[in-house]
Specification:
Strand content: under 5%
Helix content: over 70%
Number of strands: 0
Oligomer: single chain
Largest sheet: none
Order of helices and strands: HHHH
Radius of gyration: 15 Å
């Protein structure tokens, strides 16, 4: 997923996404070790997505990036 999509998410959504990605990474590693993973690029893509989410969470924690407001979300959808 592109990082612009992550910037549109709230902090709670990002935390849920992070947990989901960590679980996905665990499953991908398990499949890779068992020899059942068809596309090894999924591992690196998942790790990159985790890094993107963590970067945005740290930026919001430091005050560099702001959480999107409800009005901004509605304006982008329209």
């Amino acid at each position: 997923m592109k990082s612009s999509k992550y910037f549109e998410m709230t902090t709670e959504e990002l935390k849920r996404q992070y947990n989901s990605l960590k679980e996905e990474l665990f499953n991908l590693r398990f499949k890779h070790k068992a020899g059942q993973l068809d596309n090894a690029m999924q591992l690196s893509e998942c790790r990159k997505n985790i890094a993107r989410v963590l970067t945005i969470l740290h930026q919001r924690e430091k005050g560099i990036s702001a959480e999107p407001t409800a009005k901004a979300k509605k304006a982008k959808k329209a």
